[in-house]
Each structure stands twice: as structure tokens, then as C-alpha cells.
Amino acid sequence: xxxxxxxxxxxxxxxxxxxxxxxxxxxxxxxxxxxxxxxxxxxxxxxxxxxxxxxxxxxxxxxxxxxxxxxxxxxxxxxxxxxxxxxxxxxxxxxxxxxxxxxxxxxxxxxxxxxxxxxxxxxxxxxxxxxxxxxxxxxxxxxxxxxxxxxxxxxxxxxxxxxxxxxxxxxxxxxxxxxxxxxxxxxxxxxxxxxxxxxxxxxxxxxxxxxxxxxxxxxxxxxxxxxxxxxxxxxxxxxxxxxxxxxxxxxxxxxxxxxxxxxxxxxxxxxxxxxxxxxxxxxxxxxxxxxxxxxxxxxxxxxxxxxxxxxxxxxxxxxxxxxxxxxxxxxxxxxxxxxxxxxxxxx
Amino acid sequence: xxxxxxxxxxxxxxxxxxxxxxxxxxxxxxxxxxxxxxxxxxxxxxxxxxxxxxxxxxxxxxxxxxxxxxxxxxxxxxxxxxxxxxxxxxxxxxxxxxxxxxxxxxxxxxxxxxxxxxxxxxxxxxxxxxxxxxxxxxxxxxxxxxxxxxxxxxxxxxxxxxxxxxxxxxxxxxxxxxxxxxxxxxxxxxxxxxxxxxxxxxxxxxxxxxxxxxxxxxxxxxxxxxxxxxxxxxxxxxxxxxxxxxxxxxxxxxxxxxxxxxxxxxxxxxxxxxxxxxxxxxxxxxxxxxxxxxxxxxxxxxxxxxxxxxxxxxxxxxxxxxxxxxxxxxxxxxxxxxxxxxxxxxx
Amino acid sequence: xxxxxxxxxxxxxxxxxxxxxxxxxxxxxxxxxxxxxxxxxxxxxxxxxxxxxxxxxxxxxxxxxxxxxxxxxxxxxxxxxxxxxxxxxxxxxxxxxxxxxxxxxxxxxxxxxxxxxxxxxxxxxxxxxxxxxxxxxxxxxxxxxxxxxxxxxxxxxxxxxxxxxxxxxxxxxxxxxxxxxxxxxxxxxxxxxxxxxxxxxxxxxxxxxxxxxxxxxxxxxxxxxxxxxxxxxxxxxxxxxxxxxxxxxxxxxxxxxxxxxxxxxxxxxxxxxxxxxxxxxxxxxxxxxxxxxxxxxxxxxxxxxxxxxxxxxxxxxxxxxxxxxxxxxxxxxxxxxxxxxxxxxxx
Amino acid sequence: xxxxxxxxxxxxxxxxxxxxxxxxxxxxxxxxxxxxxxxxxxxxxxxxxxxxxxxxxxxxxxxxxxxxxxxxxxxxxxxxxxxxxxxxxxxxxxxxxxxxxxxxxxxxxxxxxxxxxxxxxxxxxxxxxxxxxxxxxxxxxxxxxxxxxxxxxxxxxxxxxxxxxxxxxxxxxxxxxxxxxxxxxxxxxxxxxxxxxxxxxxxxxxxxxxxxxxxxxxxxxxxxxxxxxxxxxxxxxxxxxxxxxxxxxxxxxxxxxxxxxxxxxxxxxxxxxxxxxxxxxxxxxxxxxxxxxxxxxxxxxxxxxxxxxxxxxxxxxxxxxxxxxxxxxxxxxxxxxxxxxxxxxxx
Lengths: 347, 347, 347, 347
Ligand SMILES: NC(=O)C1=CN([C@@H]2O[C@H](COP(=O)(O)OP(=O)(O)OC[C@H]3O[C@@H](n4cnc5c(N)ncnc54)[C@H](O)[C@@H]3O)[C@@H](O)[C@H]2O)C=CC1
Ligand SMILES: NC(=O)C1=CN([C@@H]2O[C@H](COP(=O)(O)OP(=O)(O)OC[C@H]3O[C@@H](n4cnc5c(N)ncnc54)[C@H](O)[C@@H]3O)[C@@H](O)[C@H]2O)C=CC1
Ligand SMILES: NC(=O)C1=CN([C@@H]2O[C@H](COP(=O)(O)OP(=O)(O)OC[C@H]3O[C@@H](n4cnc5c(N)ncnc54)[C@H](O)[C@@H]3O)[C@@H](O)[C@H]2O)C=CC1
Ligand SMILES: NC(=O)C1=CN([C@@H]2O[C@H](COP(=O)(O)OP(=O)(O)OC[C@H]3O[C@@H](n4cnc5c(N)ncnc54)[C@H](O)[C@@H]3O)[C@@H](O)[C@H]2O)C=CC1
Fold this sequence. Notes:
The structure is a homotetramer. Chain A has 7 helices and 21 strands. By secondary structure, chain A is α+β, with helices and mostly antiparallel strands. β16 (262-264) of chain A pairs parallel with β14 (239-240) of chain D, so a sheet runs across the interface. One 1,4-dihydronicotinamide adenine dinucleotide sits between chains D (106-108, 111, 132, 134-135, 188-189, 226-227, 229-231, 234, 287-288) and B (199-200, 217-218, 253, 255).
């Protein structure tokens, strides 16, 4: 790798009990030198946006290193020269070199960006490109104003808590994932699901080493506050403000009338074990990516990560959140009148 | 009463197992002679609509008797002469004389119209006047076309099932309501609620003479399919198509994790008794009107009424219903993109 | 097949609007001659029960033909001689010859029995063998009394409504299932589910030929009243008494805050089409059996079947139902005191 | 007041972001000298327990001042002499003098004890007397062991967060409550409810000064984590572990399909204003006690209190909580088999 970095970027960490509203401010001690651009693959609109942003960065900040993933270099390397690439077997380079990251695409794109940083994550600014974006504070049309503020000014950061997940065989040995001796990091959620298995799974849950419950269900979600508006919401969970440090446990289609979602404190470790009574396996997913097929008595351990995602926000005090749950999720929409003036079809 | 009627109007009845989609057609053997107009009180817009409709009826159908409630005669009798009035102590006259009814107002207005007919109900056509109207298929602007079709042509009728409710003291004696020896009729629902009582009510429920459950709750709703989109919906109940003959039992804030709403068949009688363990009374409401304060061991009996409300519909096959749950209730609204073109505020 | 039947068994059919409480009574015009025994495979307890029941039937009703499925004949044919077998490619024989059926196992066993009868179903009596049984009114210990009543006396029948399901390609051609030119019959439910596909499915729903809604979700269930306590319940649906003729539509983990379950009348046909916007396929299951993988713009049509399952009941008036939802489902369990006398562990 | 106290008791306060698991330990620098006993009135069993505990305290800790409320002194003063009383118009004396408190009764009794301490609260140990007790870790039979540990040893304390609530007229003036110039403190919840008013309330909600939503509903609950298992649970809210610092907003029967409960961070102030469009008043309740009837445009402000309730726990690490949600609330009860051996009634 030909990347010239003069210093390690600051590491953003989070402890239990940290007050982590959107009050954090990003201010650079030295101007940022290296930016990672993560883009949704094979999408015309995103491709155009990528090309435009690279051109603009090159003209305004010619000294800035632009890093992309190998697949992006392949897709666009002929059109754009001088892109830096970090190879798959050298992922630590991401954490070591990137000063901040830009994502272009949908919510999935920022989830993917999160997956590139198994430890500390640099500030990330996310632009929406037309699709639903709960995690995307900025429309692409504003990219210049927004990037100037990120690079030169000071912007509010929302620290979005992540979860770490470790997978174990029934004898207690750790399962390596992608050859990595590292916990997986989730921005939204860790999910166990019966998948294509037609039968219910049985999952033994314990917290802090103590038996909590047996889930006989399609599956189970452990979600961050950020993930409360993702799968957990679909499964019936509450909406949790990103500043409420907690682990949200939501069952997926449980065979029980009384399995209400529960919020656990961030200092507890949740262990989910596929019961030996379960009729089939359970698929483990991290932010929607399948990572492992759990056999009987194998288990995952989930806990709060000390490495949050610092997301560049439009507003302070979490005002974006209020707007998002109202406008994007259509939370608490009231019933309104069908007959406005004249909108009724004649008989 | 000075009303000249030459024959009893047809009685619309409903039996258990009747197939009662919107397939019923209203066709007169003799033209209708007597119309009841029910209006929301003290509302400027409704008042204007009332005056306009009366003027129009008089010019188009001069032979038509126009009946109103005493309060309406008082409110508007000076402006409009020749209105017929049925007095409060002669309510049977409504069923005896009215050929069809018009309601002007909101959902509450048609509920009120229903309350005037303790037995068979004539066809009712309901016009919305600007407010939310789930039960109101017609906008006022269409009144002429609609009324001509009702009076001269043939229109689809949706038979909306009602409930009857009888109230009993702890010794089994019937409670008379308004001096009437008649069951109350509900178009939406019969509700028991703790009301201003700060403490939970305890209600013993039985169906068909057999113990069903004890509700420790704010209250309990027995609803018609029509009422499934009223209070029951707010309390978490499902949406029931008006053609599904059933009684919907929905708890209001129960002290239980497992009190799922339940649908009962129309041939069962539901008995709700205030338990002797209840710390307070329970308010009985019929379609939102308070009718009795239930003491310990007093009870109500609810069953399907044989007297449905024949509602004039815009469409056959219940197409209105599909439109209503989508447009009025905003059922299954999908999450949509916040960033349309240009709707994002610059930073 | 060596089965000697002198007459076709009576066909039990159901029409829309049929009043179908548990009021139906089974009475034979001629004594039943042929019984089908369906058993859960590879279960020690069921095997013993099967052997006992065959021995008893042979001694009490020596003229009775005992029919089993090929797999059962294989499993137990050496131990028991004289069992009649109906081969897989001659399934119509089931409907043609069986006078009544016995199931030994769990709820899955009666679902399996249902699948053997693509058209009219004979009366079925189901015995539970230790596992959860919502559809199983009888404990095995009572089998003699129960069978004597079925064969010689008169027993209440509960007609459990079924659904039919037909599958179509995007060009409208019917998909044959198992080479059968017959609709599939469901006693519980027809389900579309993303299965192992990590992405949400998009399903266009219409009823009676009219657009109803777009489900962006893990899946969608169309359930019978019987199935309301199966998958639909887990997904948040209401409990529906078996005598409420209706189709229950329940979403599985929808990306919407407002997708409340809905009950449709039995005369409507529900069409579920995999949208061309869906990112993946959808698995179609009938009573939990995977039957087809739906591609884009392929669809299923679900409607009420005219062939219900006549289930032998313990009680009339659906009393079993009240017991089942209370004892088996633990419906509306109240919160009770933790501290009985002395059950608190000392500190 | 004749109470002899040589020093102010330690004040337990809580800040936003405090890690407040059950890790706090109570250890006295000087032995406690003054105990408050709060008892449920007019209950035979509680009365006996009170007498027994007083007798025991007198013999074991003769120097201990025993304080009661005026009503208790009246009820039992003849039987027990030497009880200290704090009069209603001198409530600050409670905070000034009490070293620790004992409650005898149900959950309501500890809620009542909380209401006596408008500011800092001393450690409270709660004994259950036969009724449901989610907030009651100790059975009465263990009182001696438990009290010895509280007075002489060291016991785990669970700091249960409280809310403060201030009420304002439409012109912004504070409403005094009970003549007190003090915010109300809630251990469970602050509720607005339509009460005996038959019509829906309309409540404008804002958080941190920004519009959040309009609740058209029976009411609205702002609850502590402790209160998540009280009214909020009945209204459909999630279960929140007491160590998750947050404000839980749960609607009561909202006229909306999409009003999912939401968790807000502890640094936000929630303002609930009765809309001028509301058809009626709204009853404000604090922990179930009615405190004010809100008129149009009047409002309440709710925020996290700095004065938690230090509850003596049986176990560390919140193990009681796991037991309580399982045993008391019957969380996630699985469906079990009805037919045990022989429990089936013969036909
Ligand atoms: N039935 C459901 O709702 C399911 C949801 N998911 C969620 O999808 C996530 C993965 O997302 P994609 O890779 O984009 O998969 P995807 O393309 O299948 O999209 C999932 C949807 O969820 C949205 N989404 C993602 N994160 C969100 C958040 N934090 N708040 C609100 N909306 C959010 C996306 O915009 C998209 O509409 C998983 O972490 C899981 O939470 C996964 C499977 C089923
Ligand atoms: N929290 C709630 O949702 C409550 C609802 N109600 C309902 O209000 C009904 C009485 O209505 P009003 O006299 O107008 O009282 P209201 O003026 O208090 O209005 C109740 C609301 O429900 C709507 N509504 C009435 N019937 C409906 C139906 N069948 N489907 C959909 N929406 C419907 C009305 O348009 C209005 O928006 C009662 O039968 C009861 O069902 C009553 C109390 C509380
Ligand atoms: N998450 C869930 O709840 C899921 C439920 N299912 C249901 O399982 C059914 C197939 O059952 P099996 O072959 O036994 O599969 P299975 O062995 O996976 O068991 C499903 C469970 O549902 C119970 N069950 C089945 N029908 C029932 C009914 N009508 N009422 C109450 N409980 C019932 C069974 O006793 C068993 O406990 C499907 O029709 C579907 O409804 C299927 C997948 C997931
Ligand atoms: N529908 C409902 O569930 C209602 C609940 N309430 C709740 O009652 C509380 C007042 O309690 P009481 O004075 O005892 O009134 P109460 O005598 O009416 O009892 C309310 C019930 O809630 C239980 N409870 C109280 N706090 C609890 C908690 N934190 N967790 C679990 N259960 C709890 C009590 O043991 C009792 O069973 C209020 O703070 C409110 O939360 C008040 C009105 C209606």
C-alpha cells in the first residue's frame, strides 16, 4: 500500500454510562488527509455521484488521498486513476489510515462501511441517493457544503453504539470468522433466525451468566438503539433514541403470547445458545449479512462494543431523529379525512 | 304526529350465517315518502348543508316528508318550516315511519342515527362534511347524484351488523335504560371502562354460559366488525371486514402480557360481570355514550343484533372498505424516502 | 388395492355463510367399515399407541378395514399383518374409501392427515401423545371410550374450515404440484416467506380482483380460524374462534408501523404476487410444508375451501376452544404473587 | 417534632450517565437511628406485620426512633406507644430525619413511600404481604434476617430512577400542588388520561423544546424503567431493565396504527400540552394518584429526577429482575401440553 499517513487518526471509544447525545463535535487538529469512499455497487446514480464527488475533491483538496475498496477500484479504476485500494487481507489498514469516510448509497452502504472497521471507526458522512435512508442525514445535492464543513469546519457527531459478537462451538472454542481473530461488530443487530429451516428454533438466552428465557420462535434479535428502527421494529420492538445506551432484545414470531421486547443495560453480556431441543439450525446474521450457521449447543455472545460509529449529523441534540421517525417511519400518523375539497370521485 | 304513512317500511333483519357482503341492493316497491335527516348540532358547515339539502329535496320531491329530531327543529325550525318532528317519548315512530335516513356530519352522526332505531333500521346514506369519516362513503358535493340514485334508482347496501346489550343488576333484574324496556343497540361497540376511577377493573367474562376469562384491565370492548376500526383498533385489535360476522373482544390496557384480542362467533352471548374483587365501578358505554355505571356483580349481556344498519354504499363488493383502510386509516404505510428532489434543507 | 367398500362415504362440504359451530353431529347410516390411522413417524410412544389401538380394533371390530400410509406399512408391517395401504400415486383412494380417520401424534400429524385429502375429508379423531396439542381434543388414555362413541354412537363434529391454494406462473399458467392437477388444501395456513433469502420480500396483495396492499416484509400469512393460533399468532395475529368464517391476513415482520392484521370475508379470493421489485424469491408453504419457490411476478391464489375437516370434538358449543386458549395457549394469564407462603429463599 | 437526630442522612443523587446497576452497596458510617415504617392502611395482615416488626425492633434496637405517618399513628397509636409522627405540613422532616424506611404492603405502598420524599430518599426495604409485588424483593417471613443485614451489615442497593413533573397553566405560571413549591416525583409514571371524559384527548408532545408528535388518544404515559412493568406494560410498552437510564413514552389507546412506544434519553425534557383542539380535559396522575385536571393549553414538564429511590435488593447484578419478569409477569411463557398423565377428563 502506497498510502502516506503521518499519524494515526484519533480513536473514538465509548464506555458504559457515557453520555452520548449528538453533542460531540468533530474538530481536526490537523486537516484530514485520507478519505474512504464507500459506494453501493452496480447502481447508475451512485456511480455518477461517485465520479462527481471524486472530481470535486480532487479540484478542491488535491492533497487528499482517496481510498476505495477493491471492488470499486475494479468497477471504476479505468475511469478514475489514482485511487488507493486496501486489500481484503489487510483490513487493519482501514482503521490505521482513514481520517474520515463518505458513503454513497442507502442504509446498507453505511452498514457495509461499519463492517470494514472491526475496531475504532473514523467519522462517517452518509449521503442518500434516492432510496429510503434512515441512517442518511444528507441528500446528495448538498454534498459540497457538507464536505467543506466536515473538512474545514466543525460538525456535530452522533456516536452510534455498536455491538460486538463472538461465536462459540459447543465446546467453548471460538469460531473464527473470515480467518479473523476479531469480534464481529454490528451497527444494527445480531440476529438468529431459522432461515430456510421450516421448523421453529429453540434458543436458550442468558444475561450476565444467568438464565433469562427460552425462545421458541422464528428467531431472536439483539439490536442497538440504531437498529431499533431496523429489523426489531418490524418484529414489534419499540423505537429507541440513539442516545439511550442499551441492548434491545426482540423475538421474531415467538410461540408465546407473552414475549414482550426487553431493554437490557449496556454492561450485560447476552448469550444465545441453540438448544439441544431445537429441531434445526439457526442462521446468525450481523447487520443482515449471514455469518454462521449455528448447530446445536453452539452459541453467540453479544455485548456493547467500545467502538461506536461517529456519524456526522445535520443538527445537534438529535433533531434529525425526531424528523426521521416522523417523516421516514411515519410514526404516529393520525387518521385524516379522505374527502378534501373535491377529491371524491362522483358516483 | 302528523305524519302520513300508508304502509310500514320494510324491515331489514339479519340472521346468523347470513351472507352479508355489499351485495344487497335497495330497490323500492313504492317510492319512498318519508326521509329522516340527522345532523351534527351546532356546526356552521353542517347547518348550511342541511338547509341546502332541504331546499333541494323540496323542489325535486315535493311530496317527501322531512323528519328531524326535536333539537334540530328547535335549532332550525324558524328558518325552515314544515319539518316533521318525532318526540323523544315516541321513539318507535322512527322505525314505523321513516323510509330512509340521511346523516350530515361525522362518524358520530351516523352512530347517533343508529341509536334512534332500537329495532329495524331503514337505509341510511351518510355524507361527510370535512371531518374524518370512516363510515361516510359520500362527500357532500355529490349529494344530488347520490340522493337521486337512492330515491329513484337502485343502490348497493352494506348491512352493518349491530350488537344488542342488556344490563342486569346483581340479582338478575334488568336495568331499564331511559325508561325503555328495550335492549340497547350498538353499531360500533359496547365498552366497560374504569373511567375516572384510578384503579383497575376486574371483569369476569363468560361466553355461551361458560367462563372465558377474568379481565384485570382499564376496560374491555365488545365490538362489531364496523367497530373494529374504532376504539378496538386503538386498543390493539385487528381490522375486521364488515362482512365477517363476528364479535370482537379487545381488552383495554390489561394487566397481562398475554391478553390477545379474540374473535367470537355471532351465535355466542358474551356476559361481562364486574367482579366482586374489583376495586371500583365500571362505566358502560354504547357507541361512546355513557349509559350505566356498573356496580359489583352487576353485568351486561352482549349478542349479535338481528337489526343491522343498511348503509348505502358507493361501490359493490366492499371496495369502499379497501379504500378506507388504505386512505383513511393509512394501513400498512410503507416507509418512504425523505429526500425527494430538493426537499432537503441546506445545512 | 384390495379394499372392499360397498359405498362412497358421505362428503362433508361447507358453503360460505354456513353456520358451523360444533353443532354438527356424526351419525352413521351404516356402520363405518374402513378406518385410516395416521401416525407420527419414528416415535416410540406413538408406535406403542398404534400397536395397542390396532390390537383393540381387531378384537372389538374385526370387520373393520385398517388403512395406513406406505411409510407406516414399511415401519410396522412386519409386526402387524393385514394393514391396507394406499399408494402415493393413487391418493384419490383416500377420499373414496375412508370412513373415518384416527391420528396419533401431535398437531403436525393432523395437518399431515389433512394433506391426504385434496377434496372431501372424512371425520377425524385425534389423540395427543404427550406433546403440545391445540388440535388434539383427546388424551390417548381415553381412546377406547372415544372410539366406541365414534363408531357406535353419535359424536359432535367441529367443521374446521380449510383454504385452497393454487400457484401460477407469471404468464398465468397453473403450477402443478406433485403432478397433481388439484388445488392444495390448508388446514392452518398458506405462508409466503423470504426463507434463507436475507432480503425483504415485496408481495402485492389483492382481494376480489382489487389492489389491497404491498407487503414489504419477511412474509405474509393467510390463515384459517384454526390457523389463527399457529404461525399467525406468533406473528401478532388475533385468536379466531373456529366458527368465525374468515380469512386472516397477518404480515410477518413488515417494514411498516401500521400493518395491522386483517380479517377478510370467506367469499373473497386473495391473490399474493411476488413483486418485480422484490430482491429475492419467496417460499410458499402449506401448513408448514414447503411447496414452491415463487419467482418474480408469480403468484398464489387463496380462497376458502368447500372441503372442511370434520374433527370429532369432546364437547359441543366449542367448549374445548375455551379450554384450549386458556390452558394450552395461556391466554390472558394474570400476574400472580411470587411470594406464596414460604416460597421465598432466605437471604 | 421530638425527633433527635444528630446528623443529616446521606443524600443519594443520580446524574445522567450514572452507571446504576445494583452495584451500589449500603454501608453506614454511623449506625442508623431513625426508621420510617410505611404501611398499607386497613389491612389485617399488614397490621399484624407492623406490630410484630415494631416489637422486634424495640427489643433488638431499643435506641431506634420509629417514625410513622399521622394516619398510622391514629390507627395504631393506642396499641403502640412511643411512635414518632411527622405532620403533613412538615414533609421536609422526612428527608431531614429518616435514615432508612420499611414498607409493609404491596407495590402501592412503596409508591406511597416515594411520594413522601420530594427530594433525596433514604434506603427503602420493602416487604410483601401476600399480594402481587413486582417492587417487593422480600417476603415478610424473612424480615429479621433482612433488617439485621440492613442495619448492621451491608446490602446491595438498586437505585430506581424517578421522574420529576411540573405543571403549568397556559400562561406559563407553575401550578402549586398541595401548596408545595416543589416538583412532583414519580417512581413509576406520569400519566395524562381522558378519565371520565368520553372523548379522545389531543396532547401536543415536544422533547427538548422541539415538536415531537400529537397524541390523539385516551392518554399518554411517561414512565421510568421501573414503571415499564406498570401501566406502560398494559398499554403495550416494552420491559425496560431498571439500569437503562431512559424515559419511556407509551400511548394509551391512540387513534393511530403507527404510534409505537419510544425510549428517550434521560437528558431530554418532555413537555405534554393539552391541545386547544382537544374536546375535553386530561387528568394528570403521578404513580396512579390524580394530581391535577389539565385544561386546554395547560401543560406538564417531565424530566429525570436527580433523586432516585435506593431500594434494598436481595441480589446483586439485578438478578431479582430476571426472576420478577419470569415469575411475576410470566414473561415469554411457552405453550405447554394440556394432557399431562391422566389430567384429561373422561368423555
Ligand atoms: N423484516 C425485516 O424488517 C428485516 C430487516 N432486516 C434489517 O436489514 C438490515 C440490513 O439492511 P440492508 O443491508 O439495507 O438490507 P435490505 O436491503 O434488506 O434492507 C433492509 C431495509 O431496512 C432499512 N434499514 C436498515 N437499517 C436501518 C435502520 N437502522 N433504521 C431504519 N431502517 C433501516 C433499509 O433502508 C432497508 O429499507 C439488518 O441489519 C436488519 O436490521 C433484515 C431482514 C429482515
Ligand atoms: N381511544 C379511542 O380510540 C376511543 C375511541 N372511542 C370510539 O369512539 C366511538 C364514538 O365515536 P364518536 O361519538 O364520534 O366519538 P369521538 O368524537 O370521541 O370520536 C371518535 C373517533 O373515532 C372515529 N370513529 C368512530 N367510529 C368509527 C369507526 N367505526 N371506524 C373508524 N373510525 C371511527 C371518529 O371519526 C372519531 O375520529 C365509540 O364507539 C368508540 O369506538 C371512544 C373512546 C376512546
Ligand atoms: N414461528 C412460528 O410460530 C411458526 C409456526 N409455524 C406453524 O407450524 C405449522 C406446522 O406445524 P408442524 O408441522 O407441527 O410444525 P412444527 O413442528 O414446526 O410446530 C409448530 C408448532 O405449532 C403448533 N401448532 C400447529 N398448528 C397449530 C394450531 N392450529 N394451533 C395452535 N398450535 C398449532 C404445533 O403444536 C407446534 O408446537 C404451520 O402451519 C405454521 O402455522 C411454522 C413456522 C414458524
Ligand atoms: N391498566 C393499568 O395497568 C393501570 C395501571 N396503573 C398503574 O398503577 C400504578 C399505581 O399502583 P397502585 O397504587 O398499586 O395501583 P393499583 O392498586 O390500581 O394497582 C396497579 C397494579 O400495578 C402493580 N404495579 C404497580 N407498580 C408496578 C411496577 N412498577 N411494576 C409492576 N407492577 C406494578 C400493582 O402491584 C398492582 O397490581 C400506577 O403508577 C400505574 O402505573 C394505573 C392505572 C391503570
